Structures are given as structure tokens and as C-alpha cells.
Automatic annotation (TrEMBL):
<dbReference type="Pfam" id="PF11227">
    <property type="entry name" value="DUF3025"/>
</dbReference>
<protein>
    <submittedName>
        <fullName>DUF3025 domain-containing protein</fullName>
    </submittedName>
</protein>
<dbReference type="InterPro" id="IPR021390">
    <property type="entry name" value="DUF3025"/>
</dbReference>
Length: 264
């Protein structure tokens, strides 16, 4: 009997494409966490220290240890029986190199702040890494003009006037597990933090899993250089072409959702 909280997931949703196959298989397993660890072992998943990655009960996280530091020190990912942690696990299976790099960045910042035995503020890098982990959307496109319009919040240009360009020149991969959780009950205002990968899309002859592996390696290499919150650009999830019905001009003229860029 699969966990009851998984029954609310509509796997036909287009934003779940890159986690659909493994997600459905885990959801149908008698014990999804046991199956998760079997797959992690078979894939040889590990953390940045080379320690085998295992998904363990939340109770194993010591009260005086940060979640990210525990993963770094032990390779153990505290996991609860809920949608949030279920999607987090799917992302580990789908984009492991990005997850490893994010954990390394987090762990390094935690270690720096603890050297003097003081509790320091999270800092911009940790904030950015958390936003990426929870809410990132990976958008691959070499169309610089379109990406510039996206950054300037020119929604009508991106999604109406140049819609065909977007569909041809862009690929969108959902990464943030909190974003996936929100989209179980979709509403128009759900917005992701877009990480734009300014490169040509993966080759057309690559399978979806092959595309994800390509994106995983590419973005992980980018994250070696760090990140800040300024690196993100907003993207309304139901505005992605083909991700919601009735995406006509009026749909994108809703300024309560598709907001103009703030003038500084």
C-alpha cells in the first residue's frame, strides 16, 4: 500500500515530466522510502565527500545540527513521509550533481560561520542556495533576445508575440521540490526562481533522462562558481507555453500575476 499523501499527485501534469517515471514507480512501491534507498544504492549516489547517500527518518537529525550540515557530514538525508520530502528525493534521483553542489555550498558556509563558535546570519549565498533548492526552474536557451525580454518581465513579448520562438528555443525543467509541492494544487500565481542556462538546448535525439543528465552536469559546473539571489528571474509556472489551458493574450495580461518589473 503506497503512502496516502501520494494519491493527490496528478502525474500527467507537464511540469512533472522530468520526475514522472521514477515518481510514479516510487509512489506505487509498497514502501517508497525503502525503494528510494534501493535506487540510490543502485545509482551509486553520494554526497560531496563521497559518502553513500541514504534517506533516513527525520528523527536521526540531531537537534543541534543543521539539516545541510548533516547531509554533508554523513551522507544521510533526513526524510519525512510527506510531499515536500518525497519531491526532494525525486530531485536527488534526477539531478544529483546539482544537489551535491548545493549541499557543498551550504556546508561550506555553515562551517565558516561556526569557526568562531558563533551563530552567524545565513548570508546571501546560503539564502540563494536555499531558494535554488526549494524553488528553482532551470531554463535552457541560447536565444539571448528572448532571455533578455524574460528578465525585463516583458511577458506579452515572451509568451504571446514570440511564443513560437519560446517553444522552439527554450526548454524548462522543474527543479525546486517546494515548487513541485505547491503545484500539486496549481494556481495561477505560483512563481519559480528561474536559473537561465544560456546555452543551446540538449540535442533532440537525447531521451528525457539524457536531457536531465546533460542539464545536471551543466548547471552543477556553473554552481561551482557560487550564486546569489540576483542570478534568478521570476517565471510564472502556469505561464510556460503548454503548461496550462487557455493561454491567450488575456491570460498573460493579468497584471496581478504577470507583473511589470520594478523600477529602481
Amino acid at each position: 500500500m503506497s503512502a496516502s499523501f501520494l494519491s493527490g499527485i496528478d502525474w500527467s501534469r507537464p511540469w512533472l515530466a522530468n520526475v514522472r517515471t521514477v515518481g510514479q514507480e516510487l509512489a506505487q512501491a509498497g514502501d517508497w522510502q525503502q525503494e528510494l534507498n534501493r535506487r540510490a544504492t543502485a545509482m551509486g549516489l553520494h554526497n560531496h565527500r563521497g559518502l553513500p547517500l541514504r534517506f533516513v527518518p527525520q528523527a536521526e537529525l540531531p537537534t543541534d545540527t543543521a539539516y545541510e550540515a548533516h547531509i554533508s557530514q554523513t551522507g544521510h538525508v533526513p526524510t519525512r513521509d510527506n510531499l515536500h520530502d518525497f519531491f526532494n528525493a525525486l530531485v536527488w534521483l534526477t539531478f544529483p550533481q546539482i544537489k551535491i553542489q548545493l549541499n557543498l555550498l551550504q556546508a561550506q558556509e555553515i562551517e565558516r560561520s561556526s569557526v568562531a563558535n558563533v551563530i552567524a546570519p545565513r548570508g546571501k549565498l546560503r539564502d540563494a542556495a536555499t531558494i535554488f533548492d526549494e524553488n528553482a526552474v532551470l531554463l535552457v536557451s541560447a536565444n539571448q533576445g528572448l532571455m533578455s525580454a524574460l528578465r525585463e518581465h516583458e511577458w506579452e513579448e515572451v509568451f504571446v508575440t514570440r511564443r513560437a520562438e519560446f517553444e522552439q528555443d527554450c526548454r524548462v525543467y522543474l527543479f525546486g521540490h517546494a515548487l513541485m509541492e505547491k503545484l500539486v494544487q496549481p494556481y495561477k500565481a505560483i512563481t519559480g526562481h528561474t536559473w537561465i542556462v544560456a546555452q543551446a538546448c540538449p540535442p533532440d535525439d537525447l531521451s528525457l533522462s539524457g536531457q536531465c543528465a546533460w542539464v545536471d552536469q551543466t548547471v552543477a559546473q556553473q554552481l561551482v562558481h557560487g550564486l546569489t539571489t540576483a542570478d534568478f528571474s521570476p517565471l510564472q509556472m502556469l505561464g510556460v507555453p503548454g503548461w496550462w489551458p487557455d493561454q491567450d493574450k488575456d491570460f498573460y495580461c493579468d497584471t496581478s500575476v504577470f507583473r511589470a518589473k520594478r523600477k529602481h
